[in-house]
Amino acid sequence: MKRQLTKCPTGIRGLDEITYGGLPQGRPTLICGRAGCGKTLMAMEFLVRGAEANEPGVFISLEESTDELAQNVASLGWDVDTLVAKKLLALDYIHIERTQIEETGDYDLEALFVRIGYAIDRIQAKRVVIDTLETLFGNLSNTALVRSELRRLFLWLKAKGVTAIITAESGDHSLTRHGIEEFVSDCVMVLDQRIQQDLSTRRLHIAKYRGSQHSSNEYPFLIESNGIVVLPLTSVELNYTVSSERISTGVKRLDGMLGGKGIYRGSSVLISGTSGTGKSSLSGHFAAASCSRGERCLYVAFEESANQIIRNMRSIGLDLETPQQSGLLKFHALRPTFYGLEMHLVKICQLVQDFEPKMVIFDPISSLTSAGLFHHIQSFLMRLVDFLKAQGISIVLTNLTTDGTPLESTDVGISSLMDTWLLLRDQETNGERNRLLFVLKSRGTHHSNQVREFRMTSQGIEMLDVYLGPDGIVTGTARLVKEAQAAAEAVARQQAIERKQHEIERKRLIMEAQIHALQAEFEAEKDDIDRLVEQAQQHESQLLQEQRSRAKYRYAEDTLNPKNYTS
Amino acid sequence: MSIFDRKSQPPSSHQSPNQEVLDYLAKQEMETYVLRLYVASNSLRSMRAIQRIQKLCEERLPGRYELEIVDIYQDPERLEQDQVFAVPTLIKQLPPPLQRLIGDMTDMDKLISCLDI
Fold it and tell me: How many Å separate Cα A72 from the centre of its chain?
């Protein structure tokens, strides 16, 4: 059987994920970091969470008195006194004060071991914290002795079989000021607090973890109202289930542009554009559509207050107040600089967990640039999008494109993360700006390649076909003019056709009249000729009769054809 | 008993200031020392410390000292109260001020000056 390192779950949110299960069971772990980076708190939470899981723990404090300690953590809702009373926690303050100690020769720290051992045995502790070893170095002049005793301490703790956390101050060039990490072979965690752009972020990384896989990334962590939260950079693997259900964007013709059905549930939509192109209005439609489906929507506003958004949306005929009152819509409005990015992430994640929305809108993400550096924002958004998508929550992000930057980019570099990208643009012609929208991309849907003009009316956003004339796209009043022109031309063409038709009709009538005239003429001539022919025939027969009578008279039969006598 | 208590008993008027100082010193010298030595069973350092302290007390404080030897393994609960973390630790409980000396007492001069004997 393969022997695997057993791990002791710390119970600290996020920490067990990045250590793949917790700290090495029955072994000491070193936490090092500068003053104020949260070492004591992390160590204390390890014990408190242990106590909750019925694993008693001992806190050996070399720095703060037990009362101070209890007070400091009470604000996090940890009731140390009750845990002590239940024998799930023991606090021991070992007071070492240089001024009260005289060194008169060789000594060892056996009494410290005995005290720790006594505390462990008294409550059958499984977890031990020693905070912080610096005090020993600071107050005892024999550093060599302290070092050798610490080596012994780590071995002794291991032999005791307790899972221990030992804290130490970090040095300038080494993990700890006195090189204690040399003694700890199992697990070393480094905490750090950095200030970037006036915002401080605490970070954690695992410098060493023998016998276990661990991530070597730096993870931001927060001291929240109820403890520490470590935020795994990319805790969510890309294996979430996807929905093929489609949801409306709230603008009918926009749904039409997106294959007729809108966006996929749980996908991400980026609306980008320069200022005043209607990003917020469009996201307002998304919100209203979500609420009208009876699904909760969280609106995270970084620039406007909830009331301002409600008022502005009312002006384009969107009522966001009713869903807000009925609890379907929740606003979370605050300045990006109010916290660091990590705090924002935690707050949003908490809100999402409490409120359980089906859609989350961030308006606008570009203002986060004031709260962090580019790659921080990128990782923040990546984690945020992953977190929300993993739960099947649809995401709408708006991004303000500043003038001069290419339209097809975001300041925060997340366009590639997005499933659908709507680009808003304005076009200035004839002294007016008109808004255009087009679908830059939409993963997995058949979508329109056409640019649409959209107008904000008192009944909401209205999409119009743009007028594509010989001179390119024409919008706004110019479009109206062009349309009128086109209409006039069409009328003219129609009239021309009608005119031609009249003309041909007239020609036909003329032709017919001429035909009649000719016929009449012909008839007249024919009558004349007939009459002449008759006359001629009458004349002929008269002549013949006269001849006959004359021949009869003369009896000259032989000279005449007998047939001529019959008639 | 503290220094301030002692001062609250004014010396008799016929004595000279010099005499007063001498009396004070004499009185102090007569004070009983209450010492407590924490040791780790019979480790070498501890044995050495016990020997040295006992020898010093016999020489300098004959008949007016109390030396208690506490084995840290036997009475671990007493360590917290006296804030002991190293062995050997000598606690001078009386006369005030309370003092903590750690080590095997090889530095006799320091021991003497610290205990003020």
Answer: 39
Helices A110-123 & A143-160, crossing angle to 10 degrees? 20
- Output the six-digit token pair for A535: 């006359």
Provide the CA A267 distance to its chain's centre, in angstroms: 7
> Do the beta carbons of residue A187 and residue A20 sit within 8 Å?
no
Query: Could you tell me which chain B residue has the CA closest to the CA of A142?
Result: B103
Distance from CA of A114 to the nearest CA of B (A): 6
Going by pLDDT thresholds of 50, 70 and 90, the confidence category of residue A565 is low
Q: How far apart are CA A421 and CA B15, in angstroms?
A: 103
**Which of B49, B33, B41, B66 has its CA nearest to residue B108?**
B49
Element (H, E) at A131: strand A127-131
Name every residue in A having a CB less than 8 A away from some CB of B: 92, 94-96, 100-112, 114-115, 117-118, 140
In chain B, which residues have their Cβ closer than 8 Å to the Cβ of A102?
A: 99-102, 110, 114
Q: What is the pLDDT of residues A1-55, one digit of tens each?
A: 456 778 888 888 888 888 888 888 888 899 988 888 888 889 999 999 998 888 8
In chain A, what's the furthest Cα-to-Cα distance?
202
Residue B79: closest CA among chain A residues belongs to which residue?
A115
Yes or no, beta carbons of B43 and A110 under 8 Å apart: yes
Q: What is the pTM of this model?
A: 0.65
List Cβ neighbours of A295 (8 Å cut-off, separation of 6 or more). A328, A357, A358, A359
pLDDT digits (tens, 9 = 90+) for A261-310: 888 888 889 988 888 788 888 889 999 999 999 999 999 998 888 899 99
Peptide bond into B11 cis (omega under 30): no
The bridge status of strand A359-363 relative to strand A297-301 is parallel
Residue A70: exposure state from Cβ atoms within 10 A (0-12, 13-18, ≥19):
buried
Residue B103 to residue A106, Cβ atoms within 8 A: yes
Chain mean position to CA A99: 60
What the block records as the tokens of A442 is: 């939409």
- Interface confidence (ipTM) of the complex: 0.74
Q: Are A363 and A299 in contact (CB under 8 A)?
A: yes
